[in-house]
Structures are given as C-alpha cells and as structure tokens.
Design goal:
It contains six helices and nine strands. By secondary structure, the chain is α+β, with helices and mostly antiparallel strands. β1 and β2 form a beta hairpin.
Length: about 200
C-alpha cells in the first residue's frame, strides 16, 4: 500500500521544529561562552603594557585610581608603595604599585620621615605624591577581592606561555607583559607585573 504524501502543513511543522532546534543550540553555545574580565583590556593598555616597556609612572597609576603613598621601612632599605582600591565590573580590587627609588633616595626618605628599619609602615603626605609623580613604577599588583574564575582571564589574555606549579596553587606567566597570574584552585588570587626585561634570559 502506498503511503500518503506529506502535506504542505507537515513540511511547515518540520521546518519550524528545525529552526527552533538550531536556535536553541545557538543559545546554548552563547550561554556557555566564557566572558573575559571586563576591565582587563583597560588595565593592559593603561598599566601592563607601559610597565612592560619601562614606561609606567606614578602619575599614570594615580590617574587610574586615587590612593595613598605608604613608606615601608625594611632592613634592606625603605620601599615606597602606592595603594588604592577601586570598583571593577567584577567587584572590588586592590592595587599596589612600588615606586622605583635608588638607595640614596630611600635613605633620604627614611630620614625625612624619622623612621628606622623595622618601624611600622606609614602613610606619607600628598605633597610627596606630587613631587614623585614622574617617578617610574618597578612592580605592580592587582588583587581581586571577589571570586574570579581563572578561565575568564584566559579568555581575556589567551593561554599563558608558561605554567608553573607552586607550593600553593599555580602560576600563569605572560612574559610579553611581564605578568604573572597566581591562582588558587580555579580562581585568580593575584596579578603581579614587572618590566618584561626581568623575564629576558641573561647572557
């Protein structure tokens, strides 16, 4: 017995079902895509790339986030840090940038503040921040205060060129930006950046 040919309305139903099926599949793929870190492009352009090229100054960091200068007396000499907190689209972040000082500048700053090695670190005046605005930054750290999946950073910067196993967690290394990303489990613990020459092999 011959079967009745499919009617036009049957073909229409099949077409509608097929369209809905493919639309649902496309929606699933979009919903499963890893979203990059929203602020990372801005930070890469404003902070990481200039620092990688030895061109980041205290003024540049101040323009991104208002903060304070902290003097930390240590046995090997004073270290001067600019610290700020700011809101990113993923939550709050802490920023710490070390100002590059030579030994004489460290000693002079310690004497001016009346500090000795081992004393408690303290905030120094805003006038000093103005005077040192054009000084270079030698290292920079960004710490998320809210949980942030590591795969989102990989979606922003691509896969790391080097992966290191640490005593606690893992490190992803991006030498082109002088950047090391410290991970705890599957989450970002800290972004630490230095000039990329630090990663260059010594002759």
């Amino acid at each position: 017995m011959n079967k009745n040919p499919l009617k036009a309305q049957h073909w229409l139903i099949f077409a509608i079902v097929a369209v809905l099926f493919f639309a649902w599949g496309a929606w699933l793929m979009r919903s499963s895509e890893v979203q990059p870190v929203a602020n990372l492009q801005q930070w890469r352009d404003a902070l990481l790339q200039p620092l990688a090229e030895d061109g980041l100054t205290l003024r540049d960091v101040q323009a991104l986030a208002p903060g304070e200068l902290w003097l930390a007396p240590r046995l090997d000499g004073a270290r001067l840090f600019y610290r700020a907190s700011f809101d990113g689209e993923e939550g709050d972040w802490l920023l710490e940038a070390e100002v590059a000082l030579d030994q004489d500048q460290r000693d002079s700053l310690m004497a001016a503040q009346g500090l000795r090695p081992g004393d408690t670190q303290r905030v120094v005046g805003e006038l000093l921040a103005v005077q040192l605005a054009d000084f270079a930054i030698r290292a920079l750290s960004l710490k998320p205060l809210d949980s942030l999946a590591a795969e989102r950073l990989a979606a922003s910067l691509g896969p790391p060129r080097l992966t290191l196993e640490l005593a606690e967690g893992q490190a992803w290394v991006y030498p082109q930006w002088g950047l090391t990303v410290h991970l705890q489990g599957d989450e970002i613990a800290l972004l630490h950046a230095v000039p990329k020459r630090v990663f260059a092999p010594r002759p």
